[in-house]
């Protein structure tokens, strides 16, 4: 244990320097240094050459090295370089003892990795002061290393949590994709094609289609407010409400004569969904929607628009028009009024339902695509196929002109109904 006298002589210390290595080919010089260091309470190790000192360092890393510059074989400068090149996370404070005081020699020593210099013959008070300075520096360095280690450990823990969340989200993505089992399906002679591109692992958009009989068809495009897990959970719920497999659970269907399912009017479907969403306490999300039914024999379409972007009717003669009156999003206002639009489609006409991920996509110049820009994209794609090929081409053109800095900021989805008379 360090005596009270030694503590007083050593002065204030963080205790970072405990083990000191003295390297000098002169036994007398080593004895003088070792005597003072032991008096101050340090554990001292001796070496008479740079090579012997390196062997010691490889076994036990010292906190402080006091090394002579001029030694046979490996001199102090070479030893310092070798000491600094040791593969270790620990840092040792290195003081070079030299009779050289020229700036060039000092620069050489610093370049080799020395932290400080003492000119021989060594003054005891100066040595003690230099060790105290080194002790403070070494204390700060070790404190910083410990904090860096803690940060690294925390980052590793966060990475593990992130990996677990990422794994769950990947599974959630598969589950969400199962809500849209078919991207294209033929009903009589007509075709419905779907596009669903979430901006993250999972998204808040949903598209779908169902048909209770050979002559009628229902299809929709939904955009839940917000992004991420909450929105994705809402789409999963809506996927059940608008199931293409279990008609008895589908709120857009009703049973007639006790056995056959038929499509409800679109305005009634919006009203039912609005009531169900508002009846669930604690849910703050709402969604926009376009839901339409089509009579495949006549081409008559009935459609409700609930805050969703205006559907685009593409006539077979090349004309295009936006339809609908806007409407109120579902889940905002109790007993919200919903009205439906009715129109006729001719053989070869197409109806495009799309989310605002298209029209609000940020372009390279910072502006948004807007409906006019969507029309330009559609015109480019009309000549290059139909159905799924048309939607894939439309999305490709969108990604080609979007801002590379912002990328896909919102989910992008679309439903394309191509009518061919039954």
Topology-level CATH name of the largest domain: Phosphatase 2c, domain 1
Q: What CATH architecture of the largest domain would you give?
A: 4-Layer Sandwich
Q: Main sheet?
A: 6 strands, antiparallel
User: Ends: how far apart?
Assistant: 100 Å
Uncertain spans: 1-13
Indicate how many domains the architecture comprises. 2
Order of helices and strands: HEHEHEHEHEHEEEEHEEHEEEEEEHHHE
CATH class of the largest domain: Alpha Beta
| Mean pLDDT metric | 89
User: Portion of residues in helices?
Assistant: 25-40%
What strand order characterises the main sheet?
6-7-18-17-14-15
The class by helix and strand makeup works out as alpha+beta
How many E strands?
Answer: 18
**Overall spatial form:** rod-shaped
SS summary, helix count: 11
CATH superfamily of the largest domain: PPM-type phosphatase domain
Rg calculated over all Cα atoms: 39 Å
Approximate strand percentage: 15-25%
Describe this structure in words.
- It contains 11 helices and 18 strands.
- The protein has 422 residues and is of the alpha+beta class.
- It has 2 domains: 4-147, 3-Layer(aba) Sandwich (Rossmann fold); 178-418, 4-Layer Sandwich (Phosphatase 2c, domain 1), CATH 3.60.40.
- A 6-stranded antiparallel β-sheet has the order 6-7-18-17-14-15. It has a 5-stranded parallel β-sheet with strand order 2-1-3-4-5, with helices on both faces. Strands 8-9-12-13-16 form a 5-stranded antiparallel β-sheet.
- A hairpin with a 2-residue loop joins strand 8 and strand 9 (216-224).
- Helix 10 (370-381) crosses helix 11 (387-401).
- The longest helix is centred in the middle third of the chain and has 54 residues, at 124-177.
- The protein is rod-shaped, with a radius of gyration of 39 Å.
């Amino acid at each position: 244990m360090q005596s009270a006298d030694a503590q007083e002589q050593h002065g204030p210390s963080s205790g970072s320097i405990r083990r000191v290595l003295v390297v000098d080919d002169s036994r007398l010089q080593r004895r003088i240094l070792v005597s003072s260091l032991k008096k101050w309470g340090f554990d001292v190790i001796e070496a008479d050459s740079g090579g012997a000192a390196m062997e010691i360092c490889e076994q036990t890393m010292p906190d402080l090295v006091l090394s002579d510059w001029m030694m046979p074989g490996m001199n102090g400068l070479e030893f310092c370089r070798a000491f600094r090149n040791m593969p270790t996370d620990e840092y040792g404070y290195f003081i070079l003892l030299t009779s050289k005081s020229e700036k060039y020699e000092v620069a050489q020593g610093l370049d080799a990795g020395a932290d400080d210099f003492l000119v021989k013959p060594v003054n005891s008070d100066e040595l003690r002061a230099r060790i105290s300075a080194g002790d403070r520096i070494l204390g700060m360095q070790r404190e910083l290393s410990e904090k860096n280690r803690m940060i690294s450990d925390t980052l590793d823990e966060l990475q593990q949590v992130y990996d677990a969340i990422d794994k769950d989200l990947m599974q959630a993505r598969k589950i969400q994709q199962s809500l849209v089992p078919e991207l294209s399906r033929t009903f009589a002679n007509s075709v419905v094609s779907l596009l669903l591109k979430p901006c993250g692992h999972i998204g808040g958009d949903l598209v779908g289609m169902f048909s209770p009989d050979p002559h009628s068809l229902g299809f929709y495009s939904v955009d839940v407010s917000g992004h991420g897990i909450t929105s994705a959970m809402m789409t999963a719920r809506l996927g059940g409400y608008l199931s293409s497999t279990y008609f008895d659970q589908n709120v857009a269907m009703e049973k007639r004569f006790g056995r056959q399912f038929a499509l409800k009017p679109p305005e009634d479907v919006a009203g039912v969904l609005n009531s169900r969403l508002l009846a669930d306490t604690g849910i703050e999300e709402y969604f926009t929607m376009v839901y339409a039914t089509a009579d495949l024999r006549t081409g008559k379409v009935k459609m409700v628009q609930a805050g969703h972007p205006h559907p685009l009717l593409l006539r077979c003669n090349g004309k295009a028009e936006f339809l609908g009156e806007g409407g109120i999003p579902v889940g905002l206002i109790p007993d919200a009024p919903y009205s439906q639009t009715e129109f006729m489609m001719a053989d070869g006409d197409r109806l495009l339902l799309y989310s605002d991920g298209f029209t609000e996509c940020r372009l390279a110049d910072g502006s948004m695509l807007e409906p006019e820009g969507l029309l330009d994209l559609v015109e480019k794609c009309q000549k290059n196929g139909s159905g799924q090929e048309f939607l894939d081409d439309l999305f490709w053109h969108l990604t080609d002109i979007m801002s590379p800095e912002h990328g896909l900021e919102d989910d992008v989805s679309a439903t394309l109904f191509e009518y061919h008379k039954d």
